[in-house]
Amino acid sequence: MATVCHRLEPYSSAIPVTQPRVVIVGAGHAGGTAAALLRQFGHEGPITLLGEEPLPPYQRPPLSKAWLKGEAGAEDLFLKGDGFYTQHGIDLRLSTRVEAIDRSGSAVVLEGGERLPYERLILAAGARPRRLPLPGAELEGVLELRNAADAERLKSALGPGRRLAVIGGGYIGLEVAASARALGAEVVVLEREHRLLPRVAGQDLSGFFCAYHGARGVDCRMGAAVAALERSGGAIAAVRLSNGSSIDCDLALVGVGAQPNLELAQAAGLDCADGVIVDIEARTSDPAIYAIGDVTWRPLPLYDRMFRLESVPNALEQARQAAASICGRPAPVPEVPWFWSDQYDLKLQIAGLSFDPDRIVIRGDVSSARFATFHLKDRRVLCVEAVNAPAEFMGGRLLIGRRAEVDPERLADSAVSMKEVAA
Amino acid sequence: MAKITYIEFDGTEHTADVKPGLSVMEGAIRNNIPGIDADCGGACACATCHVYVDGAWRAATGERSAMEDSMLDFAENVADNSRLSCQIRVTDALDGLVVRMPESQH
């Protein structure tokens, strides 16, 4: 069936416009939010939301934090309450795998052969954990953390006295390390680079986290390249490092980054880099297809470059872009990218991205765990990393968005309030 | 259960029974009440669950925490009765609470 795709023009046309049939591939934070926003923005056409997991859209961040520690239940994670999808006429199909996108036929092909026609497609396929290309990676007790099923496995394997080796000192690894300590486990963090959070944090913040974890009984080892996972029967027994030493453990969590699920987009011939290439309205190289969330290679207008972001705020921003575009609304104002992490009693909030800073300004007191590091370039704030310092985060975010010049001396002076600095 | 009334910026009222122990934000999310975005899911990290607490309820809902206060300090359209609804814990004493939502959380 050939269908003309109408761009909705709410104020201009007296001719009734057929609202396009939208199919969303991926029912994570991005896909679930896009479905809800389409309805909120007045879209009346059919919406089908396809998820591979058996659960309706849920929040992933608590899986390494409150949920893992038993402070939140499964129902606390769902993005929407009971009945939401039915009430809003969203056809939510779970445990459903998409085999292909047939662009010439404007249809999504499901495993088993069913074809779902679309007029607008939103690809929200997400990312998956990178695997260790090492012997033993398939052993029992070698875990990763991306979804609720992974989190269930990890939770049931953790407990007092259990020995956990965290491979990779990134956010997932450090959050799990903190939660595992709260559950009484013994934790070693193995980071290949010479500092924690090497890809995502500045030197000062890395050093702070290393000391903070160390003081809470986590053995953080830098320059620790994993050579192999050693077995006892079918299960992991130790992690062997390239320097020959080995660390005995009952389980290992592999947190060495994620890769975008590009297979559907690539097979369909959509332009891809380290993600599906999209514009500022989340459109791919095919005007009928949008892509949102972790799977995208997206413009960062504030930084004049393309990048891939793995974060909830990014998923939400792009869901707003795609829903606005499909509903004929103006494109939302670009946001400052931001991230957060909770470890122990630390609230880390980061705004912006630190591309080639020429100066780092520290504000506050690192030793009392209330401080922020500002990454500047040409006196403009590129990024702020705030530890238990919400005013610095919020003020920094404003400064980044405005591309305003700041006086580094004033920024470093805690006697001048952030409100004044950001004024 | 505590009955909580959420009033959208356009005046649309929603009343929901919220289980004590949840936050006022969670009460809105679980009952599919629009107007509270809660982008961070309740981590007090984003200030997108901003509400205005109706006058009579200000004492019962308590004071802002220092963290919440700092977040609100930089939010839009903040008033004396502004709170982040993820930081208001529902108790039986809040039965009847009325909160109003700002025009936008972004």
Topology:
The complex is a heterodimer of chains A (423) and B (106).
Chain A: E1 22-25, H1 29-40, E2 47-50, H2 84-87, E3 90-93, E4 98-102, E5 107-110, E6 115-117, E7 120-123, E8 127-129, E9 142-143, H3 148-157, E10 163-167, H4 171-182, E11 186-190, H5 203-215, E12 218-221, E13 226-232, E14 235-241, E15 246-248, E16 251-254, E17 258-260, H6 263-267, E18 272-273, E19 275-277, E20 289-291, E21 296-300, E22 305-307, H7 312-326, E23 338-343, E24 346-352, E25 359-365, E26 370-377, E27 380-387, H8 390-402, H9 408-412, H10 418-421
Parallel strand pairs in A: 1-2, 1-7, 2-3, 7-20, 9-16, 10-11, 10-16, 11-12, 19-21
Antiparallel strand pairs in A: 4-5, 5-6, 8-17, 13-14, 14-15, 18-19, 21-22, 23-24, 24-27, 25-26, 26-27
Helix pairs in contact in A: 1-7
Chain B: E1 2-7, E2 13-18, H1 24-30, E3 50-53, H2 58-61, H3 66-73, E4 82-84, E5 98-100
Describe, in plain words, how this protein is organized in 3D.
The complex is a heterodimer of chains A (423) and B (106). With 423 residues, chain A is α/β, with parallel strands linked by helices. Chain A folds into three domains: 22-128 and 259-326, FAD/NAD(P)-binding domain, CATH 3.50.50.60; 131-256, FAD/NAD(P)-binding domain (3-Layer(bba) Sandwich), CATH 3.50.50; 345-421, 2-Layer Sandwich (Enolase-like, domain 1), CATH 3.30.390. Chain A is 22% helix and 29% strand. In chain A, the strands form seven sheets. Chain A has a five-stranded parallel β-sheet. Chain A is globular. The model of chain A is unreliable at 1-16 (pLDDT under 50). Chain B has a single domain, classed as Beta-grasp domain (Ubiquitin-like (UB roll)), CATH 3.10.20.30. Chain B has helices at residues 24-30, 58-61, 66-73, and strands spanning 2-7, 13-18, 50-53, 82-84, 98-100. In chain B, strands 2-1-5-3-4 form a five-stranded mixed β-sheet. Chain B is globular, with a radius of gyration of 12 Å. Chain A binds chain B through residues 40, 59, 61-62, 75-76, 79-84, 87, 312-313, 316, 332, 335, 338, 340, 342, 347, 349, 388, 390-391, 394-395, 397-398, 418-419, 422, and chain B through 26, 29-32, 34, 37, 39-41, 43-47, 67, 70-71, 73-75, 106.
